[in-house]
């Protein structure tokens, strides 16, 4: 049992995954997070945006993703699209500002990718950042994990 | 007694209550969307029946999958795509609409996700009208449905609206197809087998009054004149809810017919 736990811990560390105490939602260490439960992966002046495992778990099965147009502008804190689940549309709030250079067209035919692979195949938009310093306002993985725990405990 | 009731309402969040009768559904949805997106207050909108029969699809609704487009076009039934999720309904004078638009903190401890919001909203009706929730959260009594609902959620604000079947025209249901994502309780059943009318059980006024009273136990309600001047801010809100054009419906029908023809031509049978 102890060796299994050690193996799991090493595997989690290698995969850059933090596991909640409750063991339900995953959080990746290299990403930044907004309090509206979107994640962003910054690479130079580019960023990839999606919704977190916590968000997809609470939203339920996603049946539709409303995507923005490529070339449109996104602003930190403002909505740029939406997901539909359990008869509800839920806005996706941009964690960064910039120009949308690519949208994940696969989500049009396979919206469930947001549930199955929220941090990889379920990415939503790629953005050319207009203000890289905005990323500093976002949470790192540890802070986001704690934020989610506190939010769930409060309800 | 008056003092007790007033004291009880102290501390309850304020909610504006607007009542309409026969407001066209497109206008109602435009108002809802504007209040949801631009207001910072809590609202309840009640519309006792709409004027003409209108089909209302959810945000991702595909006409070819959900509608019998040929009779819809022939009979010139308007088709609206609304801003909330969920399925397709056909509404008319026999429909009673109730909408809640709330700030996130209006209901203490309520998580801004579809199922918690749905559960809380159902309590407003469950307080006085005993019914059970199906797994997909339609309003049903036994295995028969008497209302449909949908929601929209944004940062720190949510909207939940319901169309209650006071009465319905059987022939209107023929404009709708059985959706792909049909809940289990309606699979393989005709509309008449799973829909249930409220008119057999209580008056329209009683339904509305009891709903408002139940809401009044959670909010301090303030009646707002439905004819009151709207906010005359310089920036005009542009709703996403809209009427589908005849051209769009015709194109959807053509595309579906082409797809069916192709499927038939390559079928070995």
Automatic annotation (TrEMBL), chain A:
The modification N6-lipoyllysine is found at residue 87. Its cofactor is (R)-lipoate. GO terms for cellular component: glycine cleavage complex; mitochondrion. The keyword Transit peptide applies. Residues 46-128 form the Lipoyl-binding domain. Gene3D superfamilies: 2.40.50.100. Its main location: mitochondrion. Binds 1 lipoyl cofactor covalently. The keyword Transit peptide applies. GO terms for biological process: glycine decarboxylation via glycine cleavage system; protein lipoylation. It is found in: Mitochondrion. HAMAP family: GcvH. This is Glycine cleavage system H protein.
UniProtKB/TrEMBL annotation, chain B:
It comes from the Eukaryota. InterPro entries: aa-tRNA-synth_II/BPL/LPL, BPL_LPL_catalytic, Lipoate-ligase_2_inactive. CDD domains: LplA (cd16443). It holds the Pfam family LplA-B_cat. PROSITE patterns: BPL_LPL_CATALYTIC. SUPFAM superfamilies: Class II aaRS and biotin synthetases. Residues 40-223 form the BPL/LPL catalytic domain. PANTHER family: BIOTIN/LIPOATE A/B PROTEIN LIGASE FAMILY, BPL_LPL CATALYTIC DOMAIN-CONTAINING PROTEIN. This is BPL/LPL catalytic domain-containing protein. It comes from Punica granatum (Pomegranate).
